[in-house]
Amino acid sequence: MTRYVLVRLGNGLFVLWAALTVSFMVLHLVPGDAVTVMLRGRGGEGSSVDPAAADALRAQLGLDRPLYAQYLDFVWGAVRLDFGTSFATGDEVSAVLGRSLPPTLELAAAALLLTLVAGVAAAVTASLLPSAPLRSAVWSVTVAGGAVPSFWTGIILLQVFSFRLGWFPAFGEGDLSRLVLPAFALALPGIGTLTQVLGRSLRTALADPYVRTARAKGASRLRATTVHALRNAAIPAMTLFGMMVGGIVAGAVITETVFSRPGLGTLTAKAIDTHDFPVIRALVFLVGALYVLINLAVDLVYPKVDPRIVLRSA
């Protein structure tokens, strides 16, 4: 078990370093001069750039130093959660992220919880249905749900439940009612995908000999599904659920814009629009770090669900 945890920690640190390196390269992969792009973004397209202002900004960002020195400073700053100063607002990037992160975490947590509960419930329910046409209908609905983009779902939900029925507020954040529609819009594609993967694993597990033995001993189909088959069928779904975190955070960029919610999505859109590269680099690293942490947590839960994983890795 210790070796398994150390290997997973090492993998997580490597991916985190890769995300940090990618976020550092964002500023250097911009076509042309990044400083000129930022200054023109502030003054508007086609505006002239003062060479003195460009030199001052280049010195402020440390771009006049050797590349290896810039990289080492960036890594050391990221370790201390210091990503410099926002070019658009003049605030510390860490402070800007600190204001935008809680609303996004709230939305992402609600969407992930809804994805988990609804996906598992739909997969188990479909597996328990006695009629093959009914099961096929459930699978078809989940396929459609997984194929619908979150921004389209958000627009439809706004039209129906906010503007026509008036059941939920359309925009903003605050109380729980303002979280329902964006969370559902963000979760719907994940619900469909998770239901498909878990349902397929359940169908395979229900055909295994140990499930047939449990049924022969008198276990009901509900008990055989939820107690015996679900645990072994959960491994692929857990892997998928961990990978969904990155998609949920990325989807928040559009969903928060549709519902006019503050958060990392709105901050990303503004940073891209204003060419605020210090904020963009911090956002790239933050999303990568969240992805690594969630997947590391999933990896560490695997042995609790299926102890054979540790034996195979050993």
CA-CA gap between termini: 8 Å
Give the name of the CATH architecture of the largest domain. Answer: Orthogonal Bundle
Strand content: under 5%
How many strand segments?
0
Helix-strand makeup class: mainly alpha
Secondary-structure element order, N to C? HHHHHHHHHHHHH
Q: Give the averaged pLDDT, no decimals.
A: 75
Low-confidence stretches: none
Q: What's the helical proportion of residues? A: over 70%
Shape: globular
What is the CATH T-level topology of the largest domain?
MetI-like fold
Full CATH superfamily name of the largest domain: MetI-like
The helix tally amounts to 13
- Major sheet summary line: none
The radius of gyration is: 24 Å
Transmembrane segments: 12-30, 107-129, 141-167, 179-198, 240-259, 279-302
Protein name: ABC transporter permease
Family: Belongs to the binding-protein-dependent transport system permease family.
Subcellular location: Cell membrane
What does this entry look like structurally?
- It is found in: Cell membrane.
- It comes from Streptomyces hoynatensis.
- It holds the Pfam family BPD_transp_1_N.
- The chain is mainly α and 314 residues long.
- It has two domains: 1-88 and 278-314, no CATH class; 101-273, MetI-like fold (Orthogonal Bundle), CATH 1.10.3720.
- Helices cover 78% and strands 0% of the residues.
- The chain has 13 helices and no strands.
- The protein has helices at residues 2-25, 34-43, 51-60, 67-79, 93-128, 132-147, 150-164, 177-206, 209-216, 221-258, 264-273, 277-305, 308-313.
- Helix 5 packs parallel to helix 12.
- The longest helix has 38 residues, at 221-258.
- The mean pLDDT is 75.
